Amino acid sequence: MATIKDVAALAGVSVSTVSRVINASGYVDSKTGERVLAAVEALDYRPSRIARTLVTRRSGTIGLILPDITNPFFPEVARGAEDEAYRHGYNLILCNSDWKLEKETLYLGILRQQCVEGVILVSTKLTEERLTEECRSLPPLVVIDRTITLDIHSISSNNVGGAALATKHLLVQGYRRIAHIAGPASSISARQRLEGYHRTMAEAGLPVDPALVVEGDYRLGGGKKAMARLLALTEPPEAVFCANDMMAVGALEQLQESDRCAPADMAVVGYDGIDLTRYVHPRLTTVIQPTYQMGERAVQLLLETIKGNESFQHIELEPRLAIGDSSVRRDGP
Amino acid sequence: MATIKDVAALAGVSVSTVSRVINASGYVDSKTGERVLAAVEALDYRPSRIARTLVTRRSGTIGLILPDITNPFFPEVARGAEDEAYRHGYNLILCNSDWKLEKETLYLGILRQQCVEGVILVSTKLTEERLTEECRSLPPLVVIDRTITLDIHSISSNNVGGAALATKHLLVQGYRRIAHIAGPASSISARQRLEGYHRTMAEAGLPVDPALVVEGDYRLGGGKKAMARLLALTEPPEAVFCANDMMAVGALEQLQESDRCAPADMAVVGYDGIDLTRYVHPRLTTVIQPTYQMGERAVQLLLETIKGNESFQHIELEPRLAIGDSSVRRDGP
DNA sequence: CTGAAAGCGCTTACAG
DNA sequence: CTGAAAGCGCTTACAG
After folding, report:
1. Host H or E run for residue A179
2. Where are the domains of chain A?
3. Where are the alpha helices (DSSP H) in A57-127?
4. C-beta atoms of B50 and A48 within 8 A
5. How far is B233 from chain A (nearest CA, A)?
6. How many angstroms separate the Cα of A206 from the Cα of each of A199, A200, A236, B128?
7. pLDDT tens by residue, B172-211
8. Which CATH number applies to A159-289: 3.50.50.100, 3.40.50.300, 3.40.50.2300, 1.10.10.10?
9. Where are the transmembrane segments (chains A, B) (predicted)?
């Protein structure tokens, strides 16, 4: 590998001059510039980012800590982030935290050593206190999918509003006895979606039978079990809004296994907008989260902060409803 | 951020000594060691990987270039690679090439500047010549999902064997008129799976009607169209082996839209083993590729090479058949 | 417009 | 067992 010294020697100038031309900084005679460029070309010289980082403190890398790239929700976030990073000459270091606090903390430390210019934390388990503490010794931080009140950038999607979208859709279809398969109460997004459901029902003047709200685990099995419980009720619901797609798919499976089908026997709506919803039968009505944009905006925020913007932002993106076949009343409202 | 100098000053020793204790290299008095460790603790000192890399040339990072993390095939590979990297204290830089030669080349250059210790290239479009050329100026390279004959590490899965697995399964079920929805001829894996199909049919002494081999595009739409063509034949097949799962799902959709169903009217088998196959109805029989292991082994190979192993390896992993409901003959063979 | 020098934060022989 | 010095490959004031 050629170094800046080799280029300088070949071009017959000092390393300072080479540095100036490759960075287009300071004055340099056009003739000299050409000679340097020729030498760069001849030696296939590529400046070492490592050396550059050591002096400038700018590594051109961003850390992305997410729970599990294998979970259908996260590749989109990663892709949005990587695309935006790419456009600005940045690279992404990918870290899977497995929803574990220790792995998050560990990676945060490693990324700091790695001299990343910013970190994106998706669905973090860290408390706000720890986060603010980390922020002192850390490069800029953006938290995705977690509402943060303190002085940390955050990007989230409107879960209350999204749940309202789903619930209203069912109301518009003419359903009144609407159940909710909720996510685990430990999850903030699950609580928010539950709230959106309750709020919308209340606004419509409809009381919610407590038996119609069943807690699931955000996984297929949980959705299945929850649906079984709903079907076992003396008066089962006409429709169910599930807090995520995996549970909705589980609910559909349970319906089928009980020889019923959606939407004829019960309307089903999911949440997230993962690919699977398009391939399942009946095609699932769902609330699509702007996952790609979340990753994209996170990098944008980081870049602005690196460039000196001081103000903390809390961006809330809007999900949108995608109507499939699983919730549409065929006989009309 | 505290530096090694700060630690040295606080502990009252030289930076050389600090370096020795944090790297556990060379002799150091236990008392001195303790003092240094105490200083490290007190200052929350974390050695800069950047500075260390500059002198040791070991950055602790590996580059992963794959076509698109959003494509269901790749997150598993990435996860396998990241897990193995994590175990050895390495980090992964994620790059999406969008199946484009230019992006691959560009990233290869950037990763070199970033001083990664190795690069994993998934489904590369680069020619073998270009690849060997790159290898001269580059850190160790491992190519995944692409058979390479030259002196480059490669990890692939046995596509011919996997296709044979699928085809034999259909034969065992008693089907004789077996069609193949192939992937695009430009894809090596598609050609290999086609070969596995042909070879198995020949071994069984069954001639293949050319009309039964239809080329698709590895996407849902292509599978749908191909199935439509098969259904339009005067003598449609009894079973079809699809070169990937997305096309198989498309084929299932077309069957359903034509008021037929699998496996009663036609048996369907896919390839890849993406999650979707488990949620589709009927549950799809498919050939599961060892994607996680491919990523894992790739990092292992890289690490061995970094440690000095000179011999080039071509690892071929074996896929396995997962029998679902889409291909099982209910009335018995 | 150009070059010499210092320095970024480490590691690594080399003396002692 | 410990420290002074050189050096990794750059950038950045500072002279000239």
Report:
1. strand A178-182
2. 4-47, 59-158+291-319, 159-289
3. 74-87, 101-113
4. no
5. 26
6. 10, 9, 16, 67
7. 999 999 999 999 998 889 999 999 999 999 999 999 999 9
8. 3.40.50.2300
9. none
